[in-house]
Amino acid sequence: MKARLNTLKGQTQQKLAALGDTTFLGDAHRGSLVLKLMTQFARDLVSSIDGTSFDISTKELCGGARVYYVFNNVWKRAYKY
C-alpha cells in the first residue's frame, strides 16, 4: 500500500511539474497553484471567445462564433413564436 501511495504521489508531482513552475509544489503554495490554474483557465476562455486560441477546431463553430450562432439562430427562432 505504501509503495502504491508513493507511486501515485510521484505521478501527481510529475503532472504538477508539467503544468509549469515547480515552485508551486508543496503545501505552502497550494493557494498560488490554484490562482495560477484559474488565471490560465480564464486566459484560455477569453482567447477562445476572441477567436485567438490555438485549439480551435475548423469542423465546428467555436468561441465567439458559437455564441453568435446560438443567439442569432437558435435563441432568436425560439422566441419568435
TrEMBL record:
<feature type="domain" description="Dynamin stalk">
    <location>
        <begin position="1"/>
        <end position="77"/>
    </location>
</feature>
<dbReference type="InterPro" id="IPR000375">
    <property type="entry name" value="Dynamin_stalk"/>
</dbReference>
<dbReference type="Pfam" id="PF01031">
    <property type="entry name" value="Dynamin_M"/>
</dbReference>
<protein>
    <recommendedName>
        <fullName>Dynamin stalk domain-containing protein</fullName>
    </recommendedName>
</protein>
